Amino acid sequence: MALDDSLDEHETGDPAEAAFDRLRDELLAGQDSVAAELKRLDCSETLGVIVQRLQAIEDHPALSMTPQQYGQALRAASEAVEKRAEQQFYGVIQGLDAVARDLKGRLAGARARHRQNWLLTIGAATGMVVGMGLWVGLSGPLARALPASWAAPEKMAAATLGMDGWSAGQRLMHWASPPGFQLAVQGDRLARANREALAKCEAAAQSSGQAQRCVLTVPPDGS
Fold first, then answer.
1. What stretches of 41-176 show up as alpha helix (H) in DSSP?
2. pLDDT band with cut points at 50, 70 and 90 for residue 142
């Protein structure tokens, strides 16, 4: 065929027609070689695998189900999902309710403790006021009811003023009568300054049985 084409090309002398003829011959040759290769290949193994896969698909339970069975399966799956979601929802609600009850209990306990503390504070303050009132009202009569040798009122007065007995007495005398307390201070100062003279006069008065005149020295203030 190539020889004939070459002869035709020499006879006709048309290069385009000659090129087309050569391309046609090459395509025909390639087709023949592909056909020969296909005949040589063994496709039985590949076809067997395909058949097995198709058989597995055909044997799948889903392909054997009717439309009614599909509907029942879908409804069952939907009901299962809804039931599970409902259970989870109720579980969350129960958890929130438990948390709310716990918080409520804690708040109630805090309020109760606060109220108890407030009542204890009021009770303590009331007890202090009542105790002070009882102390003021009853301490005097109770102290005076004790034996005089115990000097309970005097000791209570000194303890209340936070002083010794002498200083507490001076303060009480000054509070009771400032002029009388001033006279007592002046008399004490004269007695201290004229202790010897007063002692001689007292001895003379005791021996004679009569009043005696004494000469006293008056010290200046602050001495």
1. 44-58, 67-145, 152-161, 165-176
2. confident
